[in-house]
Amino acid sequence: MRNTISPELTRLCVNTIKMLAVDAVEKANSGHPGLPMGAADYAFTLWSRYLRFNPKDPAWPNRDRFVLSAGHGSMLLYALLHLAGYDLPLDELKRFRQWDSLTPGHPEYGLTPGVETTTGPLGQGFANGVGMAIASRMSAARYNTAEHKIVDHYVYGIVSDGDLMEGISSEAASLAGHLGLGNLIYFYDDNRISIEGPTELAFTEDRGKRFEAYGWQVLYIDGHDGEAAAQAIEQAQADRERPTLIVARTCIGKGSPNMAGKAEVHGAPLGAAEVAATKQNLGWPEEPTFYVPDTVRAVFAARVKALQGEYKSWHKTVKAWAAANPELAQQREIALNKVLPDDLEAQLIAAVSKPNATRRLSGEVLARIGALVPSVVGGSADLSPSTSTYMKGLGDIGRGSFDGRNFHFGVREHAMGGILNGLALYGGFVPFGATFLVFADYMRPSIRLASIMGVQVVYVFTHDSIFVGEDGPTHEPVEQVASLRMIPGMTVIRPADGPEVAAAWTFALRHQDGPVALILSRQKVPAIAREQAFDVAAFSQGAYVVAETAGRTPDLVLVGTGSELQLAMAAKPALEQAGHAVRVVSMPCVEQFKRQDAAFREALIPAGARKVVVEAGTRFGWGEIVGCDALFITQDGFGASAPYEVLAEEFGFTAEQVTQRILAWK
Q1: How far apart are alpha carbons 108 and 80 in whole angstroms?
Q2: pLDDT digits over 479-514, tens only?
Q3: Reduced to 3 states, what is the DSSP secondary structure of residue 519?
């Protein structure tokens, strides 16, 4: 795209971006000025000539996505968003990193207009962008026609040395190259400085060759040469078969006469004296701070105005497309608005057949979901036969083929988590990812970010306890369920049988403002003999009464989850024979139970009753639910390698052992 901005005006715009970052970090006495100062040249080229956006409609579906994976350089993004006319007033830049501002230390999705994803933990944004690029290709395959293209945008990003050092980026880059994501274009800000000093202290491989090996197009530029950046962007756009990494050699803190190129400028204010020296070096007025020349505002205003033509043209195309393809248009609206069948609960409950492992029952439910909810897409980390998460007949996502719904993430749990977030953020899809529960730890940063952002991602975690059996303690999760329950905003569901599995999936599909983890067994479980018909509404409150002694106030409440609910049920007759009034409570979801009011919780688990918890995981967290004086029949050490029936006997998880422990409890 031809540059119509003079070199002098270009320099003024670049320096404005730099100094907004410098002034904001200085005023906050906290932040990272180095990256914004070093990346301003190529970032300005991207935003002023190539990036498609509309500040008045930040959610425009066909906008280009811009991901600042190097989230510590947030002031670069905030300066660009402000200048581009987003609802981010200059006063918010002045409140950088302050309480209740729109300019937090790292970009936060849902808070600042124009921020596409929450970044900061390095490598996460990289993987999110890969997910967005996949979602874009999938949307194009679903909705574009020969006559009308309504999805044809790019995903851009800025990644740092730190991003490329983190393993998640390697995993995500490998998959992106395998899939041939030609709509993905990343600038690698190669400033060769990390917090401890030069990157050569720990990072000396040839990064470009590494990405070439992944199947990426790799281009090299002087990151301070705007025209070189423009040529690289156009070369990247021309290659529709490979993602592109533009290695932009930059000087961190460029413009600062005494700090440029030094590690000290990475994560600390320049200081008053160096700010003054930098302004003098750049020919910038010392006062006022946060100065934006009118001519710079005019440049960005002109870009926004020019983009209005593309924005209006796209809406015209969508209107014509919808008129020519009404059924396709309706499908798109249903997907974007996450509309679900009114009888979803009944249909999913009807999908489960005879008793089985809950992972297998989940597979039956997922097959029905595949037919009912086209927006549900997902896959596993090379474990679909074990996790029962392959949706038969619905096609695969692969190189040159994006109209399917099954992913093959490979053995890449870390990247899978980040890519799922990108898919969810893109819109129009409800993504799920599956692996063994013990490997949820590989995904934890992505799970945590999904909770922070409040995005709808479903995790299918199978092989949920020591009853994995022969694989032994390396594969037998004991602390993972408790650790997932600790994440604010996370919903963890451990269903006991077929109806609970169906209800768990129903909840996950209807719960659109946060992630849900389904915790499923490897071993078969029996159908629970409920005294009343299964009630999805009761299940959705997190806990409900499965069985109780008729006509008496319970003096003993047994709380079970997942495959251990059957043990609580099995203990009930003997306890009643011993004179106890027993209530058996299924608590598939601790978080939902805790979200209910105090009256509900007290009625279900009365304060005057003695309580027992039966769960093949650590007791951590249960004291808050039932009190620390309860009996905890839990697994508070690692497992062992043996058939699961032997482990049940050795670790005290048979019906007889559970019953005897309760009877002997004083």
Answers
A1: 15
A2: 999 999 999 999 999 999 999 999 999 999 999 999
A3: strand
CA-based nearest residue to 424, from 144, 128, 59, 54: 128
**Gyration radius of the chain over CA positions:** 28
Q: Which residues contact 465 (CB under 8 A, 6 or more apart)?
A: 476, 477, 478, 521, 562, 563, 616, 617, 635
b/e code 375-398 from CB counts within 10 Å (16+ = b): bbbbbbbbbbeebbbbbeebeebe
Residue of 528, 581, 531, 590 whose CA lies nearest to 552: 581
Q: What is the pTM of this model?
A: 0.98
Residue boundaries of the structural domains of the chain: 7-307, 344-519, 543-664
**Contact of 523 with 644, CB cutoff 8 Å:** yes
CATH 3.40.50.970 for domain 344-519: yes
Which superfamily is assigned to 7-307 in CATH? Thiamin diphosphate (ThDP)-binding fold, Pyr/PP domains (3.40.50.970)
Beta bridge partners of 406: 378, 396
Q: Are 542 and 592 in contact (CB under 8 A)?
A: yes
Asked about 413 being catalytic, the answer comes back as yes
CATH architecture of 543-664: 3-Layer(aba) Sandwich (3.40)
**Alpha-carbon distances of 558 from 73, 124, 520, 555, rounded to whole Å:** 52, 41, 21, 10
580-605 in b/e form (b: 16+ CB < 10 A) is bbbbbbbbbbbbbbeeeeeeebeebb
Residue with tokens 């003993």: 556
Distance CA 280, CA 283 (A): 5
pLDDT single digits (tens) 546-602: 999 999 999 999 999 999 999 999 999 999 999 999 999 999 999 999 999 999 999
The active-site residue out of 345, 413, 476, 564 is 413
Mean pLDDT of all residues belonging to the chain: 98
CA 502/CA 362 separation, integer angstroms = 7
Name the packing angle between helices 207-214 and 167-179 (round to 10°): 40
Backbone torsions φ then ψ of 23, nearest 5 degrees = -65, -40
Residues in Cβ contact with 351 at an 8 Å cutoff, skipping those fewer than 6 apart: 364, 365, 367, 368, 502
pLDDT of residue 654: 98
Residue 116, C-beta contacts closer than 8 angstroms, at least 6 positions apart: 65, 66, 67, 109, 128, 132, 425
Alpha carbon 285 to chain centroid, angstroms: 43
